[in-house]
Specification:
2 copies of one chain form a homodimer. By secondary structure, chain A is α/β, with parallel strands linked by helices. Chain A has 14 helices and 16 strands.
């Protein structure tokens, strides 16, 4: 790319940032009714534009096939009637969620008569960078809108045509509601330099939400000058304590690993207490192997069950996102917590036990966004948490941690009401 | 500085980071009683070490005088019996505040029987970078400790001897309470490269809190790879609406500007509604000039009162931190909000009015951390807000906004309790 094109992209992104900030300022005081009208009208526009969306998606699919993209990638890229309807229904569901802006989070009186309220406000402008799934365009734009934020969406180049039609539908909704159309913008170029420019728009963009694989997140983390809500990976652990119920342990581990292996909340490592490992492991390995899962383990695990292959050092730090699990035998809850402290990505960890003391020890001391007792790590999801929807999961400790829903897309301000108080 | 010394400083800071992280892990589950014991024993140690502190401070003062430091700087650096006692009392006051860790922030049940709690946790390791005031060493270390965080303190080189003795007292408190002494560490070198290394310890440090002048904050912002709780400056506005009470307007503006001119919550720009400017301004200028304040204004303001000097374009973007105020005449609340949107640092803004409609408009639409009606902007302070103490003020919108007290130094985790639930 030559210098002129680089300059053009920098100017393009600056312009988008400026327009987003202006839209955000209007959006911050938009009524709940207007935001909901925009969402329901966007849903209507998506349904009315089914043919145009399918056409655009066919172009993306053809290009993807020509490029030789993997089947799983093409499956994520593909839209059909059902998926378009699901997108529209998703927008309506977000319209039905409570408005997270303008909520009085707390309030108190001071002895001098000042009344202080903490009131939720939008964050401002959110940049969302994602890969091939076109439905993220609708989801992310809608979540940002409902939380009063303007969004700059940067989808994968492979889904560009599909996303462009979807954003046109969202803009129809904004227009119908009398809201600024720049509240939702799609980066109109597949050029990768646009991402670099977006990550430097510190003046205009308040948060970056990257969604995608580890390499995408690593690249964005290294480049971004803007704070992020992100998780790099989900190396989730399930620990079977010596106080575990046998059947529950087997069922929960099977679900935690195998329900869907490709999600960040899937368990990647199983820790088993030494006292119960010989009796429990064979049954669990039966269930995992039957379900098509490869089992790797430390020497203690291998000694217990011959179907377990020897794990390498790397296994303990690997997010398989596949039908593979690593198993380590530990002395008890202390060693389990130590193993998690060393290898976890601070996403989600679970203990299976009937011993409430061990459970509390684990819940208190494990430093992850989500800690569970007697439940599958696959519940690590904004929908399952009752948040209605999520734009991602954060393993950071600042602002948002765990599922990032509407509430996590807001900030707050202090509103102070006085009667002429001066500070002594 | 040669390469060996640079390598040494990098290794030194890595070691401090690692030690802080290990201490933070212990501190996260420390009892409230242990943390409070550490604080009260630290207070005792400060009182017992008065002579040593005064000796160390005398060394710092002598070096500062030799270096030709300004009187105001030396005043901030100076310790005496009263200031040491105030530091000790400050530690005791922090011991008396509620523990912000382990608080159930919210909890709810899911239809599948899962019980979800959101529980406050420490952030981890906090790096505090500050200028000459040695009492920040005690304050910041104590606030981090009470909120379960380990701290790495980097004071100004001018206060190095004083801070070193203060940290020794804090470590005595930690030891007496059975808590890790590495929970509070002072960077043991005045070398500026240590700051650069601290700002790159992404693996160990969770948040940086810079406290100081604009140039310090700008330098740290440009260099830091770690998120920050900070404010660059406080360009605070007071707007006198046409619905303002005359006496209240005069009293509040005088207090907002002149109570202390050197704090970030001091009003720097006065906006006055056009309809009331001719009747109100002269009285306000009387009061300001009597108090020793220089008044600069736009052409409308100058036309109303001859004592007002013509302001330059820069005045509207200047944090004077001095007995100077800029005055602009505006058409009404809309133009006041627009002026603030353009020139404010999003710290604190106030409207003086008896008109509740204008007040609500201002409170809703001004996008600052703190918005006030009929009160002095000098109330922008964690103590005045009833938070007990603050480590700083944040103008960012992520995590902490406004005064940063104990609560803002915490994160949270989700604790999920089940009875064997698997995700369908």
């Amino acid at each position: 790319m030559n210098t002129n094109e680089n300059t053009d992209i920098a100017a393009l992104m600056q312009g988008m940032g400026k327009a987003a900030k202006a839209a955000a300022s209007e959006l911050a005081s938009a009524s709940t009714a207007a935001k909901n009208t925009a969402l329901t009208e966007s849903a209507k526009a998506l349904r009315d534009s089914k043919a145009a969306i399918l056409d655009a998606n066919a172009k993306d699919m053809a290009a993807g096939e020509k490029k030789g993209l993997k089947g799983s990638f093409l499956d994520r890229l593909m839209l059909d009637d059902g998926r378009i309807e699901a997108m529209a229904a998703g927008l309506q569901a977000i319209a039905e969620l409570a408005d997270p802006v303008g909520v009085r989070l707390s309030d108190w009186d001071r002895p001098n008569g000042l009344h202080i309220e903490r009131i939720s406000t939008p964050l401002g402008v959110i940049g969302v960078i994602y890969e091939s799934r076109p439905n993220v365009t609708a989801d992310a734009g809608a979540l940002c809108l409902k939380s009063g934020n303007a969004s700059i969406l940067r989808g994968g180049s492979e889904s560009f045509h599909s996303s462009a039609v979807i954003v046109t539908c969202l803009k129809q909704g904004l227009k119908a509601a009398g809201l600024p159309e720049d509240a939702i913008q799609l980066v109109p170029t597949a050029d990768r330099d646009a991402v670099g420019e977006l990550l430097r728009l510190v003046e205009y963009v308040d948060v970056i939400v990257p969604r995608g694989g580890k390499s995408l997140i690593e690249r964005i983390t290294a480049e971004s000058r803007i704070p992020m809500f992100k998780h790099l990976e989900g190396i989730c652990h399930t620990y079977i304590d010596d106080g575990a119920d046998t059947d529950m342990a087997k069922n929960v581990v099977l679900n935690a690993k195998m329900r869907r292996t490709g999600i960040c909340g899937a368990t990647e490592t199983l820790l088993v207490a030494r006292t119960v490992a010989p009796t429990l492991l064979p049954g669990i390995v039966d269930a995992l192997v039957d379900a098509g899962c490869e089992v790797r383990g430390d020497t203690d695990a291998v000694a217990i069950d011959g179907r377990i292959a020897a794990a390498s050092d790397d296994d303990w730090d690997t997010e398989y996102l596949d039908a593979i699990i690593s198993v380590a035998v530990v002395d008890g809850v202390d060693q389990a917590i130590a193993h998690i402290g060393e290898h976890s990505s601070q996403h989600t960890e679970a203990i299976i036990t009937e011993d409430s003391k061990a459970a509390e020890e684990f819940l208190n001391r494990v430093d992850s966004a989500i800690v569970m007792v007697n439940a599958s790590t696959q519940f690590a999801d904004g929908g399952e948490f009752g948040m209605g929807a999520e734009i991602g999961i954060s393993t950071g400790k600042l602002h948002a941690r765990g599922p990032v829903g509407l509430e996590q897309l807001t900030s707050f301000k202090y509103v102070v009401r006085g009667t002429g108080q001066c500070r002594p």
